[in-house]
Amino acid sequence: GKEACEYLISPMVSGVFAGDPYKLSLKSCFPVIADLEETYGGLFKGMLKKKNKKSGPAGPGGVLTSYKGGLINSLTDLSKKTKSVEYRLGDGVNRVEKVHDKFHIKTASANEFDFDHLVVACPSYVASEFFKDMDSELSDSLNKIHYAPAFVVGFGFDEEDVKHDMDGFGYLIPPTENRKILGALFTSSIFPERAPEGKKLVRVIMGGDRNPWIVGKPEEELVLMALEGINDTLGIKGHPEVVQYFKWNMAIPQYYQGHSKIVKSIENASESAGNLYIGGNILYGIGINDCTRTSFEIAKKLLENIKAHQ
């Protein structure tokens, strides 16, 4: 019912997509929930009937994992373990064309390359721009994927200045509460190695599809809003010792209703182009787990295609 949507589904959607549940496609965002609805005629009916059966995650769950020092270490680890691979960093792609069955790429630094296979894992709006000359329909389909803004700020406190014990994951706030933040993560509880002994680290999330107003706000003002947003809940008594923030005007892709049609259009265009693979978080899921699964599937298909043409 309405209360379940407002106090259960809406916070979950905010926590994963920073989205509006009334706009998003249930089947594209949470396929397991959609399957329960379709198979059993309702979410709770399905949960009761499947409580002893194993299935994939319906929403956020499991154990959070990350690299010590941040996800950047996933790239540094990869670069150390790959041989005969050339990495070019800091040079954006401006244009992609198909010339004599090869992908001809022009970069922002005026470099040009030719490749037999092309894997795209950047935001859809970026890919839309560099595919314009090669395939206008593919470009248009990629450009149809809307992005929500996000502002994330990390606060580091002395543990004496935070009344709440922060023994848990964090919290999400239902939109009906009319708060300026979406929620907060207790980073020092989730990843203890990220805060020194006697310190607490909190990550506050703002923005999302329901709060596009953050785009026009100065970052310093958003930091104050974020601090006020956790003050009463966590019982903040002192000033933060550390403040680190990031703002993305186009942060998280939103799988609106009709997303499956966009996916099909992009898949058809990729197949027609030949040896073109679309990865990242723009089609099949926005989480790290989803992106990892998609990457393995692309790698498998890529190897199969390479072997088939040897």
TrEMBL record:
Pfam family, any one: Amino_oxidase
Compartments where found: Cytoplasm
Listed EC numbers: 1.3.3.15
SUPFAM superfamilies according to UniProt: FAD-linked reductases, C-terminal domain, FAD/NAD(P)-binding domain
Amine oxidase domain sequence ranges: 3-300
Residue ranges of the TM segments: none
GO molecular function, one term: oxygen-dependent protoporphyrinogen oxidase activity
One of the GO biological process terms: heme biosynthetic process
Cofactor section: FAD
Enzyme kind, highest EC tier: oxidoreductase
Reactions performed catalytically: coproporphyrinogen III + 3 O2 = coproporphyrin III + 3 H2O2
GO cellular component: cytoplasm
Alphabetical list of InterPro entries matching this protein: Amino_oxidase (IPR002937), FAD/NAD-bd_sf (IPR036188), Protoporphyrinogen_oxidase (IPR004572), Zeta_carotene_desat/Oxidored (IPR050464)
Annotated keywords: Cytoplasm, FAD, Flavoprotein, Heme biosynthesis, Oxidoreductase
Function, as annotated: Involved in coproporphyrin-dependent heme b biosynthesis. Catalyzes the oxidation of coproporphyrinogen III to coproporphyrin III.
Alphabetical list of PANTHER family matching this protein: PROTOPORPHYRINOGEN OXIDASE
Family to which this protein belongs: Belongs to the protoporphyrinogen/coproporphyrinogen oxidase family. Coproporphyrinogen III oxidase subfamily.
Stated name of the protein: Coproporphyrinogen III oxidase
Organism of provenance: Flexistipes sinusarabici
